[in-house]
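Database export, one record per block. Field names are fixed; values are copied verbatim from the stored entry.
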Amino acid sequence: MATLTRQSVQQCIMASYGQYCISAQGDIVCNTADDGNVTIQCQIVNTRFNSGFAGDRMRVDEVDDLRVWCQTHPGLENGVNWSFGFRGTDHAHPDSINVTLIDRTNLMFNFHIYLTA
């Protein structure tokens, strides 16, 4: 299990988002600047495009910076300024967060991120 930098997580989210935009599922590899190749699993289940990197984690102290990044990404596309949604930790999900997007396609984008201290 690897601990990825926030920058690597952001690169993985954007790689997964590219797959989401074309509704392509399956494993992809994101060549991150900080952590090398990271395998991302993308799966369509009903109306959700679920994705994430099984076994890898991000440090909990980088969550707030990721939340801020989500507000300006993925950004302007075809005249529409899109921003990711963000679900932080809670009692039901004490060690995971989700980056989401709805209404860009007929699927809901849902990127799962597990956290470590």
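Remark 1: Residues 3-116 form one domain.
Remark 2: Residues 6-21 form the longest helix (16 residues).
End of record.
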